[in-house]
Structure formats: structure tokens, C-alpha cells
Give the backbone structure.
Amino acid sequence: MTSRTRAWQAAFIVAFLGASYFLLSPGDAVPSIGAGIPQSDKVEHAATFAILAFLARFAYRDRPAWGVFAALVLYGIAVEIAQRNIPGRSTEVLDALSDAAGALVAFAVRPRPAAT
């Protein structure tokens, strides 16, 4: 494993822990970027999972992309299920779909090959 791979994995872990903190904190403890804008939480979910997926693509290049994508989708579903027991949070299918959509965007966009 190269030092570059380890750096990507460290970045992913930091982002994953940060996302977990915000996604699993009580609703009134976490500020919403789009407070007052209808469905803005869906954009927040998609952006969060797009960032996680982007980092995961580079952190786990040795793993099948579909497996990393599936793990992120399952994590999004698990978070939604866990939120039903957190004050100020709710379980929403649209949030899980937003998570998957954000991850899909990051996996669907192919990086440009390096210039030679």
C-alpha cells in the first residue's frame, strides 16, 4: 500500500466519522445549511455521500467500485434506520435515495487520464 493510498484512506475515515457525527446527532444539535428551503436536506445528503464516494474511490482503488458503492448505500440505509431513535430526526426513504444518488454521481464521473 502506497503512502498516497494511506492518505486517501485517512481522508475518507475523517470524512466518514464527521458525516457520522452529523447524521447521527440530534436534529437540533446540527445546523442545516439550507434551513427554510424545502427539501434542502436531500441536497445535503447527496452532497455528503458524493464527497464520501469521491474519497472512497481513491482510498479503495483495489476494491471493486460496485462493492464500495454498495457499502456506502448500505451505510446510508443504516443511518436512516438509526435516525428513527434520535430526537429531532426521522427515517426517510428519500434521504436514503439522496445518499445513493450522491454516491452514484461520484462513481459515475470518471477521472481524466493523466497527461503524458
The chain has four helices and no strands. The longest helix spans residues 3-24. Residues 3-108 form one domain.
